[in-house]
Amino acid sequence: MLRIEEFSDDEFGIVKIIDTSNEYDLYESIFIGGNALGKSRLIVKLIQSFRHISNYLEKGEVLGSPFAVKYAFDSDRYIFSFKDGGVKMFKNDIEVKTIPTPNTILAISTTYNDKFPFSDTSNNDADYHYCGLRETSNASWISTLTRYTLDNLLYIISDAEKQDSLGNVFDELGLEHNIVISYKIKRKKEISFDNFSNLIFSGGESTFYHRSKKYYELTPHNVEDMFKLYKQMMNSRNADFLQLSLRDSEVSSVLIDNLDLLRKSKLISHIEIKIQKRIFNSKHFNFSSGSSGETLLLYTLTSILRHAKNNSLIFIDEPEVSLHPTWQVKYLSILRSILKTINGCHVLIATHCHFLVSDLKETNGSVVTFNFINGVRTIELLGNSTYAWSPESILYNVFNVRTVGNVYFDKELSTALKISSAYELTTFKRKKLESYVEKFNTLVFDELDPLNKIISALSNRLKND
Predict the structure, then answer these.
(1) Would the pTM count as exceeding 0.70?
(2) Cα(15)–Cα(39) distance, integer angstroms
(3) Interatomic CA distance for residues 268 and 191, integer angstroms
(4) What CATH architecture does domain 2-136+309-387 belong to?
(5) How confident is the model at residue 205 (pLDDT cuts 50, 70, 90)?
(6) pLDDT digit string, tens, across residues 339-380
(7) How many other CB atoms are there within 10 angstroms of residue 338's CB atom?
(8) Can you tell me the distance from the alpha carbon of 351 to that of 384, in angstroms, rounded to the nearest whole number?
(9) How is the beta sheet containing 284-286 ordered, strand by strand?
(10) Structural domain boundaries of the chain?
Protein backbone atom coordinates (compact mmCIF):
# COMPACT_ATOMS: atom_id res chain seq x y z
CA MET A 1 0.00 0.00 0.00
CA LEU A 2 1.42 3.37 -1.10
CA ARG A 3 -0.11 6.75 -0.24
CA ILE A 4 1.24 10.31 -0.54
CA GLU A 5 -0.06 12.09 2.55
CA GLU A 6 1.62 15.50 2.45
CA PHE A 7 4.00 17.60 0.37
CA SER A 8 5.68 20.90 1.17
CA ASP A 9 8.07 23.34 -0.48
CA ASP A 10 8.63 27.09 -0.77
CA GLU A 11 6.18 27.53 -3.65
CA PHE A 12 3.15 25.61 -2.37
CA GLY A 13 3.69 25.61 1.38
CA ILE A 14 2.22 22.57 3.14
CA VAL A 15 -0.26 20.61 1.01
CA LYS A 16 -2.28 17.86 2.70
CA ILE A 17 -3.41 15.20 0.25
CA ILE A 18 -4.78 12.55 2.60
CA ASP A 19 -6.07 13.09 6.11
CA THR A 20 -6.28 9.48 7.25
CA SER A 21 -5.09 6.54 5.19
CA ASN A 22 -6.66 3.08 5.11
CA GLU A 23 -5.96 -0.45 3.96
CA TYR A 24 -7.82 -0.25 0.64
CA ASP A 25 -5.74 -1.46 -2.29
CA LEU A 26 -6.50 1.54 -4.51
CA TYR A 27 -6.64 5.15 -3.34
CA GLU A 28 -7.75 8.08 -5.51
CA SER A 29 -7.01 11.76 -4.92
CA ILE A 30 -8.46 14.50 -7.09
CA PHE A 31 -7.02 18.00 -7.50
CA ILE A 32 -9.59 20.57 -8.65
CA GLY A 33 -9.63 24.32 -9.16
CA GLY A 34 -9.47 27.08 -11.74
CA ASN A 35 -6.95 27.42 -14.52
CA ALA A 36 -3.39 28.54 -13.72
CA LEU A 37 -3.68 27.75 -10.01
CA GLY A 38 -0.93 25.12 -10.00
CA LYS A 39 -2.69 21.74 -10.08
CA SER A 40 -0.50 20.33 -12.84
CA ARG A 41 2.53 22.13 -11.43
CA LEU A 42 2.02 20.37 -8.09
CA ILE A 43 1.76 17.01 -9.84
CA VAL A 44 5.06 17.69 -11.60
CA LYS A 45 6.68 18.51 -8.25
CA LEU A 46 5.34 15.29 -6.71
CA ILE A 47 6.77 13.30 -9.62
CA GLN A 48 10.12 15.05 -9.34
CA SER A 49 10.28 14.61 -5.56
CA PHE A 50 10.08 10.83 -5.80
CA ARG A 51 12.58 10.80 -8.66
CA HIS A 52 14.88 12.89 -6.45
CA ILE A 53 14.43 10.35 -3.63
CA SER A 54 15.39 7.47 -5.93
CA ASN A 55 18.38 9.44 -7.23
CA TYR A 56 19.54 10.16 -3.68
CA LEU A 57 19.25 6.51 -2.63
CA GLU A 58 21.26 5.45 -5.69
CA LYS A 59 23.82 8.27 -6.04
CA GLY A 60 23.73 10.14 -2.73
CA GLU A 61 22.75 13.50 -4.23
CA VAL A 62 19.62 15.62 -4.61
CA LEU A 63 19.25 18.37 -7.19
CA GLY A 64 16.74 21.20 -7.15
CA SER A 65 14.88 23.21 -4.52
CA PRO A 66 14.16 22.14 -0.92
CA PHE A 67 11.08 19.97 -0.35
CA ALA A 68 9.59 17.43 2.02
CA VAL A 69 7.19 14.59 1.32
CA LYS A 70 5.32 12.34 3.75
CA TYR A 71 3.94 9.04 2.58
CA ALA A 72 2.66 5.70 3.82
CA PHE A 73 4.14 2.46 2.54
CA ASP A 74 2.39 -0.69 3.77
CA SER A 75 1.85 -0.14 7.50
CA ASP A 76 4.69 2.38 7.99
CA ARG A 77 4.97 6.13 7.47
CA TYR A 78 7.98 7.79 5.92
CA ILE A 79 9.34 11.32 5.57
CA PHE A 80 11.97 12.51 3.12
CA SER A 81 13.21 16.05 3.78
CA PHE A 82 15.68 17.99 1.65
CA LYS A 83 16.57 21.28 3.32
CA ASP A 84 19.64 23.54 3.50
CA GLY A 85 21.50 21.13 1.23
CA GLY A 86 20.99 18.19 3.60
CA VAL A 87 18.74 15.15 3.57
CA LYS A 88 16.89 13.52 6.45
CA MET A 89 14.77 10.39 6.26
CA PHE A 90 12.37 9.04 8.86
CA LYS A 91 10.42 5.83 9.38
CA ASN A 92 7.62 6.19 11.92
CA ASP A 93 9.35 9.34 13.29
CA ILE A 94 12.70 7.55 13.75
CA GLU A 95 15.58 8.73 11.54
CA VAL A 96 16.79 6.04 9.13
CA LYS A 97 19.34 5.71 6.33
CA THR A 98 17.07 4.30 3.62
CA ILE A 99 13.38 4.26 2.73
CA PRO A 100 11.22 2.38 0.18
CA THR A 101 10.16 4.02 -3.07
CA PRO A 102 7.32 3.40 -5.55
CA ASN A 103 7.72 0.41 -7.83
CA THR A 104 6.58 2.57 -10.74
CA ILE A 105 5.67 6.22 -11.32
CA LEU A 106 3.35 6.89 -14.26
CA ALA A 107 2.63 10.33 -15.74
CA ILE A 108 -0.48 10.18 -17.94
CA SER A 109 -1.53 13.17 -20.04
CA THR A 110 -3.93 13.78 -22.92
CA THR A 111 -2.90 17.37 -23.62
CA TYR A 112 -0.34 18.47 -26.19
CA ASN A 113 1.32 21.01 -23.90
CA ASP A 114 1.69 19.08 -20.66
CA LYS A 115 4.68 19.91 -18.46
CA PHE A 116 5.46 16.38 -17.31
CA PRO A 117 9.14 15.40 -17.45
CA PHE A 118 10.21 12.89 -20.07
CA SER A 119 11.52 9.48 -19.06
CA ASP A 120 15.31 9.46 -19.00
CA THR A 121 16.21 6.12 -20.58
CA SER A 122 19.92 6.97 -20.48
CA ASN A 123 19.96 7.48 -16.71
CA ASN A 124 18.48 4.29 -15.28
CA ASP A 125 15.01 5.83 -15.10
CA ALA A 126 13.15 2.55 -15.54
CA ASP A 127 10.77 3.24 -12.64
CA TYR A 128 9.33 6.40 -14.25
CA HIS A 129 7.20 6.36 -17.41
CA TYR A 130 6.03 9.47 -19.24
CA CYS A 131 2.87 8.49 -21.13
CA GLY A 132 1.88 11.66 -22.91
CA LEU A 133 1.52 12.89 -26.47
CA ARG A 134 4.79 14.79 -26.83
CA GLU A 135 7.59 12.95 -28.61
CA THR A 136 10.02 15.78 -28.03
CA SER A 137 9.70 18.91 -25.93
CA ASN A 138 8.48 20.85 -28.98
CA ALA A 139 6.31 18.43 -30.89
CA SER A 140 3.47 15.94 -30.72
CA TRP A 141 2.04 13.96 -33.62
CA ILE A 142 -0.86 11.60 -34.28
CA SER A 143 1.73 9.08 -35.52
CA THR A 144 3.29 9.21 -32.04
CA LEU A 145 -0.07 8.40 -30.46
CA THR A 146 -0.60 5.50 -32.86
CA ARG A 147 2.88 4.11 -32.30
CA TYR A 148 2.67 4.33 -28.51
CA THR A 149 -0.79 2.75 -28.45
CA LEU A 150 0.39 -0.10 -30.66
CA ASP A 151 3.37 -0.68 -28.36
CA ASN A 152 1.01 -0.77 -25.38
CA LEU A 153 -1.35 -3.22 -27.06
CA LEU A 154 1.43 -5.60 -28.10
CA TYR A 155 2.97 -5.65 -24.62
CA ILE A 156 -0.39 -6.24 -22.95
CA ILE A 157 -1.48 -8.96 -25.41
CA SER A 158 1.84 -10.75 -24.80
CA ASP A 159 1.03 -10.87 -21.04
CA ALA A 160 -1.70 -13.45 -20.42
CA GLU A 161 -2.45 -12.00 -16.97
CA LYS A 162 -3.48 -8.65 -18.48
CA GLN A 163 -5.54 -9.89 -21.42
CA ASP A 164 -8.83 -9.97 -19.49
CA SER A 165 -8.36 -6.37 -18.36
CA LEU A 166 -7.62 -5.32 -21.94
CA GLY A 167 -10.80 -7.10 -23.00
CA ASN A 168 -12.70 -5.01 -20.43
CA VAL A 169 -11.29 -1.81 -21.96
CA PHE A 170 -12.37 -2.92 -25.45
CA ASP A 171 -15.82 -3.79 -24.08
CA GLU A 172 -16.21 -0.33 -22.53
CA LEU A 173 -15.29 1.24 -25.87
CA GLY A 174 -17.64 -1.08 -27.76
CA LEU A 175 -14.82 -2.70 -29.76
CA GLU A 176 -14.34 -6.23 -31.06
CA HIS A 177 -11.55 -8.22 -29.37
CA ASN A 178 -9.07 -7.98 -32.21
CA ILE A 179 -6.78 -5.49 -33.91
CA VAL A 180 -5.33 -5.24 -37.40
CA ILE A 181 -1.82 -3.87 -37.94
CA SER A 182 -1.44 -2.44 -41.43
CA TYR A 183 1.86 -1.36 -42.95
CA LYS A 184 3.65 -0.66 -46.21
CA ILE A 185 6.70 -2.68 -47.25
CA LYS A 186 9.19 -0.24 -48.70
CA ARG A 187 11.41 -2.79 -50.51
CA LYS A 188 9.53 -5.08 -52.86
CA LYS A 189 12.57 -7.03 -54.07
CA GLU A 190 14.01 -10.05 -52.32
CA ILE A 191 16.77 -9.23 -49.86
CA SER A 192 19.59 -11.42 -48.55
CA PHE A 193 20.20 -11.87 -44.84
CA ASP A 194 23.56 -10.06 -45.07
CA ASN A 195 22.02 -7.02 -46.75
CA PHE A 196 19.17 -7.11 -44.25
CA SER A 197 21.63 -7.11 -41.34
CA ASN A 198 23.51 -4.16 -42.81
CA LEU A 199 20.28 -2.20 -43.12
CA ILE A 200 19.28 -2.96 -39.53
CA PHE A 201 22.56 -1.87 -38.02
CA SER A 202 23.00 1.14 -40.29
CA GLY A 203 19.68 2.39 -38.95
CA GLY A 204 21.64 3.20 -35.80
CA GLU A 205 22.88 6.36 -37.49
CA SER A 206 19.45 7.85 -36.82
CA THR A 207 19.27 9.79 -33.53
CA PHE A 208 15.98 8.26 -32.43
CA TYR A 209 17.05 4.79 -33.54
CA HIS A 210 20.36 5.10 -31.74
CA ARG A 211 18.58 6.04 -28.51
CA SER A 212 16.38 2.95 -28.71
CA LYS A 213 17.03 0.38 -26.01
CA LYS A 214 15.98 -2.34 -28.45
CA TYR A 215 18.80 -1.33 -30.79
CA TYR A 216 21.45 -1.72 -28.10
CA GLU A 217 20.10 -5.15 -27.14
CA LEU A 218 20.24 -6.55 -30.70
CA THR A 219 22.06 -9.85 -31.12
CA PRO A 220 22.63 -11.97 -34.26
CA HIS A 221 19.82 -14.25 -33.07
CA ASN A 222 17.45 -11.27 -32.75
CA VAL A 223 18.30 -10.17 -36.29
CA GLU A 224 17.57 -13.67 -37.59
CA ASP A 225 14.12 -13.58 -35.96
CA MET A 226 13.51 -10.14 -37.41
CA PHE A 227 14.53 -11.35 -40.86
CA LYS A 228 12.09 -14.28 -40.62
CA LEU A 229 9.27 -11.90 -39.68
CA TYR A 230 10.13 -9.57 -42.55
CA LYS A 231 10.17 -12.44 -45.04
CA GLN A 232 6.78 -13.63 -43.75
CA MET A 233 5.37 -10.13 -44.12
CA MET A 234 6.67 -9.91 -47.71
CA ASN A 235 5.42 -13.36 -48.74
CA SER A 236 2.08 -13.30 -46.94
CA ARG A 237 -1.12 -13.33 -48.98
CA ASN A 238 -2.09 -10.31 -46.94
CA ALA A 239 1.09 -8.44 -47.73
CA ASP A 240 -0.06 -5.26 -46.05
CA PHE A 241 -1.60 -6.27 -42.74
CA LEU A 242 -1.53 -8.66 -39.77
CA GLN A 243 -4.58 -9.50 -37.67
CA LEU A 244 -4.36 -10.41 -33.97
CA SER A 245 -6.91 -11.37 -31.38
CA LEU A 246 -6.43 -9.95 -27.88
CA ARG A 247 -5.11 -13.36 -26.82
CA ASP A 248 -2.43 -13.90 -29.49
CA SER A 249 0.41 -13.85 -26.96
CA GLU A 250 2.99 -15.63 -29.11
CA VAL A 251 2.52 -13.47 -32.22
CA SER A 252 2.44 -10.33 -30.12
CA SER A 253 5.76 -11.17 -28.46
CA VAL A 254 7.46 -11.49 -31.85
CA LEU A 255 6.06 -8.16 -33.02
CA ILE A 256 7.11 -6.31 -29.85
CA ASP A 257 10.76 -7.03 -30.48
CA ASN A 258 10.81 -6.43 -34.20
CA LEU A 259 8.07 -4.23 -35.65
CA ASP A 260 9.36 -0.86 -34.48
CA LEU A 261 12.95 -1.66 -35.45
CA LEU A 262 11.80 -2.58 -38.96
CA ARG A 263 10.12 0.81 -39.14
CA LYS A 264 13.18 2.66 -37.85
CA SER A 265 15.33 0.77 -40.35
CA LYS A 266 13.06 2.06 -43.14
CA LEU A 267 12.09 -1.46 -44.24
CA ILE A 268 8.42 -0.84 -43.52
CA SER A 269 6.42 2.35 -43.12
CA HIS A 270 2.90 3.73 -42.58
CA ILE A 271 2.19 1.46 -39.61
CA GLU A 272 -1.40 1.85 -38.48
CA ILE A 273 -3.72 0.15 -36.01
CA LYS A 274 -7.18 -0.77 -37.22
CA ILE A 275 -9.98 -1.45 -34.76
CA GLN A 276 -13.56 -2.59 -35.24
CA LYS A 277 -16.78 -1.43 -33.63
CA ARG A 278 -19.03 -4.09 -32.14
CA ILE A 279 -21.80 -3.27 -34.59
CA PHE A 280 -23.35 -5.58 -37.20
CA ASN A 281 -21.45 -5.46 -40.51
CA SER A 282 -18.97 -2.89 -39.21
CA LYS A 283 -15.54 -2.76 -40.82
CA HIS A 284 -12.12 -2.11 -39.34
CA PHE A 285 -11.12 1.54 -39.34
CA ASN A 286 -7.87 3.35 -38.66
CA PHE A 287 -7.21 4.13 -35.01
CA SER A 288 -6.00 7.59 -36.06
CA SER A 289 -9.37 8.22 -37.75
CA GLY A 290 -11.35 7.55 -34.58
CA SER A 291 -12.76 10.28 -32.39
CA SER A 292 -10.20 12.14 -30.28
CA GLY A 293 -11.89 10.94 -27.09
CA GLU A 294 -11.85 7.31 -28.21
CA THR A 295 -8.20 7.35 -29.28
CA LEU A 296 -6.98 9.19 -26.17
CA LEU A 297 -8.94 6.90 -23.85
CA LEU A 298 -7.55 3.76 -25.47
CA TYR A 299 -4.01 5.17 -25.34
CA THR A 300 -4.11 6.30 -21.69
CA LEU A 301 -5.86 3.21 -20.34
CA THR A 302 -3.49 0.85 -22.16
CA SER A 303 -0.52 2.90 -20.89
CA ILE A 304 -1.71 2.37 -17.32
CA LEU A 305 -2.46 -1.30 -17.89
CA ARG A 306 0.95 -1.85 -19.47
CA HIS A 307 3.14 -0.08 -16.90
CA ALA A 308 1.34 -0.16 -13.53
CA LYS A 309 2.72 -2.44 -10.83
CA ASN A 310 1.93 -3.02 -7.17
CA ASN A 311 2.61 0.07 -5.04
CA SER A 312 2.71 2.50 -7.95
CA LEU A 313 2.03 6.23 -8.14
CA ILE A 314 -0.20 7.09 -11.11
CA PHE A 315 -0.53 10.79 -12.01
CA ILE A 316 -3.22 11.75 -14.56
CA ASP A 317 -3.67 15.25 -15.96
CA GLU A 318 -7.14 16.22 -17.24
CA PRO A 319 -8.38 12.76 -18.33
CA GLU A 320 -11.74 14.27 -19.32
CA VAL A 321 -10.28 16.02 -22.39
CA SER A 322 -12.42 15.17 -25.47
CA LEU A 323 -14.47 12.62 -23.52
CA HIS A 324 -18.24 12.44 -23.89
CA PRO A 325 -20.03 12.86 -20.50
CA THR A 326 -20.92 9.15 -20.59
CA TRP A 327 -17.23 8.23 -20.50
CA GLN A 328 -16.48 10.95 -17.95
CA VAL A 329 -19.06 9.39 -15.62
CA LYS A 330 -17.56 5.91 -16.14
CA TYR A 331 -13.87 6.92 -16.14
CA LEU A 332 -13.05 6.04 -12.53
CA SER A 333 -14.97 2.75 -12.68
CA ILE A 334 -13.05 1.77 -15.85
CA LEU A 335 -9.79 2.76 -14.16
CA ARG A 336 -10.66 0.63 -11.14
CA SER A 337 -11.46 -2.35 -13.34
CA ILE A 338 -8.03 -2.36 -15.02
CA LEU A 339 -6.24 -1.89 -11.67
CA LYS A 340 -8.19 -4.54 -9.75
CA THR A 341 -5.35 -7.07 -10.01
CA ILE A 342 -2.71 -4.50 -9.02
CA ASN A 343 -2.31 -3.73 -5.32
CA GLY A 344 -1.54 -0.65 -3.27
CA CYS A 345 -1.59 2.12 -5.91
CA HIS A 346 -2.26 5.81 -5.35
CA VAL A 347 -3.91 7.57 -8.31
CA LEU A 348 -3.73 11.39 -8.33
CA ILE A 349 -5.83 13.24 -10.91
CA ALA A 350 -5.89 16.94 -11.84
CA THR A 351 -9.28 17.69 -13.38
CA HIS A 352 -12.08 20.17 -14.08
CA CYS A 353 -14.67 17.36 -14.33
CA HIS A 354 -17.39 17.28 -11.67
CA PHE A 355 -18.38 13.73 -12.66
CA LEU A 356 -15.05 12.40 -11.37
CA VAL A 357 -15.52 14.17 -8.05
CA SER A 358 -18.99 12.69 -7.51
CA ASP A 359 -17.74 9.15 -8.17
CA LEU A 360 -14.97 9.35 -5.56
CA LYS A 361 -15.55 6.74 -2.87
CA GLU A 362 -15.73 7.96 0.73
CA THR A 363 -13.47 5.23 2.09
CA ASN A 364 -10.64 5.49 -0.44
CA GLY A 365 -10.64 8.96 -1.94
CA SER A 366 -9.77 12.59 -1.21
CA VAL A 367 -10.38 15.97 -2.88
CA VAL A 368 -7.83 18.81 -2.81
CA THR A 369 -9.22 22.20 -3.86
CA PHE A 370 -7.22 25.06 -5.40
CA ASN A 371 -8.73 28.56 -5.09
CA PHE A 372 -7.67 32.18 -5.52
CA ILE A 373 -9.21 34.41 -2.83
CA ASN A 374 -8.32 38.07 -2.28
CA GLY A 375 -5.14 37.69 -4.30
CA VAL A 376 -3.95 34.62 -2.39
CA ARG A 377 -3.86 31.02 -3.61
CA THR A 378 -5.34 28.54 -1.14
CA ILE A 379 -4.93 24.76 -1.33
CA GLU A 380 -7.16 22.76 1.01
CA LEU A 381 -8.05 19.14 1.63
CA LEU A 382 -11.83 18.88 1.46
CA GLY A 383 -13.18 17.46 4.71
CA ASN A 384 -16.42 15.94 3.38
CA SER A 385 -17.02 12.96 1.12
CA THR A 386 -18.36 13.95 -2.30
CA TYR A 387 -19.58 10.49 -3.30
CA ALA A 388 -22.94 10.59 -5.17
CA TRP A 389 -23.25 14.38 -4.87
CA SER A 390 -25.39 15.96 -7.58
CA PRO A 391 -23.73 17.99 -10.38
CA GLU A 392 -25.26 21.16 -8.88
CA SER A 393 -23.76 20.41 -5.49
CA ILE A 394 -20.33 19.60 -6.89
CA LEU A 395 -20.24 22.71 -9.08
CA TYR A 396 -21.25 25.05 -6.27
CA ASN A 397 -19.76 23.50 -3.15
CA VAL A 398 -16.54 22.12 -4.65
CA PHE A 399 -15.78 24.03 -7.87
CA ASN A 400 -17.25 27.27 -6.50
CA VAL A 401 -19.28 27.77 -9.69
CA ARG A 402 -22.69 29.48 -9.62
CA THR A 403 -25.17 28.12 -12.16
CA VAL A 404 -28.64 29.40 -13.05
CA GLY A 405 -31.22 28.09 -10.60
CA ASN A 406 -28.64 26.36 -8.41
CA VAL A 407 -30.52 25.40 -5.25
CA TYR A 408 -27.36 25.47 -3.11
CA PHE A 409 -26.61 29.06 -4.11
CA ASP A 410 -30.24 30.06 -3.58
CA LYS A 411 -30.17 28.51 -0.12
CA GLU A 412 -27.00 30.34 0.96
CA LEU A 413 -28.25 33.61 -0.51
CA SER A 414 -31.52 33.26 1.38
CA THR A 415 -29.64 32.50 4.61
CA ALA A 416 -27.39 35.54 4.15
CA LEU A 417 -30.36 37.84 3.59
CA LYS A 418 -32.08 36.42 6.65
CA ILE A 419 -29.02 37.08 8.82
CA SER A 420 -28.74 40.60 7.39
CA SER A 421 -32.35 41.36 8.33
CA ALA A 422 -31.77 40.51 12.00
CA TYR A 423 -32.15 43.42 14.44
CA GLU A 424 -28.70 42.79 15.86
CA LEU A 425 -25.72 40.82 14.57
CA THR A 426 -24.15 38.49 17.11
CA THR A 427 -20.47 37.62 16.74
CA PHE A 428 -21.42 34.27 15.20
CA LYS A 429 -23.87 35.86 12.73
CA ARG A 430 -21.35 38.56 11.77
CA LYS A 431 -18.67 35.97 10.96
CA LYS A 432 -21.19 33.91 9.01
CA LEU A 433 -22.33 36.94 6.99
CA GLU A 434 -18.72 37.95 6.31
CA SER A 435 -17.97 34.48 4.95
CA TYR A 436 -21.01 34.67 2.66
CA VAL A 437 -19.96 38.08 1.33
CA GLU A 438 -16.46 36.78 0.68
CA LYS A 439 -17.82 33.76 -1.18
CA PHE A 440 -20.43 35.72 -3.18
CA ASN A 441 -17.70 38.08 -4.39
CA THR A 442 -16.01 35.12 -6.11
CA LEU A 443 -19.28 34.21 -7.87
CA VAL A 444 -19.99 37.52 -9.63
CA PHE A 445 -20.25 37.16 -13.42
CA ASP A 446 -19.58 40.81 -14.40
CA GLU A 447 -20.26 44.39 -13.33
CA LEU A 448 -23.90 44.15 -14.52
CA ASP A 449 -24.59 41.08 -12.41
CA PRO A 450 -27.50 41.78 -9.97
CA LEU A 451 -25.54 39.89 -7.34
CA ASN A 452 -23.37 43.02 -7.00
CA LYS A 453 -26.30 44.94 -5.48
CA ILE A 454 -26.94 42.18 -2.94
CA ILE A 455 -23.26 42.05 -1.98
CA SER A 456 -23.25 45.83 -1.57
CA ALA A 457 -26.31 45.69 0.68
CA LEU A 458 -24.82 42.91 2.80
CA SER A 459 -21.50 44.80 3.09
CA ASN A 460 -23.33 47.97 4.22
CA ARG A 461 -25.17 45.95 6.85
CA LEU A 462 -21.82 44.78 8.22
CA LYS A 463 -20.43 48.33 8.24
CA ASN A 464 -23.48 49.88 9.88
CA ASP A 465 -23.95 47.34 12.62
Answers:
(1) yes
(2) 11
(3) 13
(4) 3-Layer(aba) Sandwich (3.40)
(5) very low
(6) 988 999 999 999 999 888 888 887 889 999 998 877 789 999
(7) 21
(8) 18
(9) 241-245, 178-185, 268-276, 284-286
(10) 2-136+309-387, 141-289, 407-464
